[in-house]
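Supplementary notes for students who missed Thursday's class. We covered one full example, reproduced here. Read the sequence, then the structure, then the short commentary at the end.
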Amino acid sequence: MERAVAVFLNTKDKRVSARWNLKLRGGSSIICLVPVHYSRPIITHLEQWASLQRGVFLIGPEIKRVPILLFPDANAMPEKKKLGPADKRRQVKRCGTCSGRKIKCEGGFPLLFVEGHASGETKQQTALSRSKLTIASAIPTNGDPADRFIGYFLLFIQQNQFTASFQGLDTEILHLVRTSPVLYHSAIAIGALDASRRGSISVPKGRESPQYIAFSSYRTSIRVLQASVSEKDAAQRDDVLWGTFFLGLFELLSDSSGEGWVKHMLHGTSMILRLSRLDKNMSSLRRTFYGIFRMLEASRALLYGEATILSEVPWVNFHKKLVSGDEIWDPIEEILALMIRCSTFNLRARQIVSEIPELQRYTDPAVAALGFEGLVIQDAMYAWHAQALSLMSSTSSDSSPLLLALAYYNALLIFLSGSFDYFPYWAAPNAPILPKPEITAHVTAILQLTDAALKTSRLAGALMFFPLRVAGSRAGGKEQRSEILGMLSRVAQRGFVVAGRIRDDLQEVWVERGMIADGKVCTLHIS
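Structure (token representation):
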């Protein structure tokens, strides 16, 4: 079944309607309509996105043949006018859109209606959608001006893909956003923050700025989440899980120190996952969430040199069961498993070495055994690479996940080598130590792959932090350092200001190694 996609509609602008008066192709099930005032660049992006997703835009008379999920303008349905007995003005009970279509106006956000000759299948889907879109009384729905930022939130998650399944998340997550106070306020926070940086929204005099709404909604979401986690079975609720993710995502977008993100990932999301049931037959939303968490948590563990819940035996066994039925080899899943394995090994190796007196480390068999264990992990990486290369010639779909996986592979080889080559207790070939020319080649590969991913894909910029941080630690000269700073600037321009933390870490490394003068400031261009 072909999936319909989001559409901007301005019923008063006939040029827009004429331009998008496309024919409906069979199988489309739902259309999202949001006001055209969100600016031309967003409309252009949606047109491009629909083309890539083989979606269809619908405007005009064809619209009557499908169920519609309508996002009205925040000011479209004002409060009912109170008219006096002698007042001849017509009492307004419907918004302009519903009045023009001569249908009952449910009010609030969203409005769901079906017109015309929908097929039996379509009517069934509409009934299902209607049951799913019950609005919780705790969520403001009467023309709240903040509702306009939901469109920016949906656009943001389309432009920043964390996993392949994240791409089709908008419809499912919208249901949660509209029924969960936690997600509603966190979505408003992300949408408003993104809108404030686009500069594409006007603020009437006396109204709060998008940035103010963003941080106010963030604080509200925090309070609601804190109240929610104390409830029974909170860990089994999808909205609580996604709430911790979106709050952590807001931290990535607003806090350049990165500490808020670490707090949410390590202490918030991990804690809730520990309390949740390990169920192979989890919902699609929870499965998508688990994939995103696994992606970000593997990178966090390597970047910060900390333990992760994903390395614990119950979670390792759970993941094996979860992917055991997958028929297609997934390069991302496999490289993430290697990242978690490498992170766990690195922590254990440091612990073992720290317990052995300095002079004994050169001859202690436990230290030598670590070198051979590292070689086994390195061989697993090379085996992964051989299989990934065989995919490159046969892949006809989106190649961006493979680009990212290859960037991780090159970074992981350097990271593993760094666990040994900074210490005098090991030497090649008894440890996975790479010669300098190979390290240089891997750094070059990371920069090429990351640059391609940033230019040609909608992968979230935060996914680039690990390979760029590793490449920066082994950058060979001013040109490579400039390339890395340039890519970090692009990530920051996409909203992930925590790129500044990576820049600061690299600057310390470069000063320590005499690559740049102490006091010289490396800047990120965000405007």
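Commentary. Residues 312 and 504 are 31 Å apart (CA to CA). The beta strands are 6-9, 31-35, 68-70, 111-113. If anything here is unclear, bring it to office hours.
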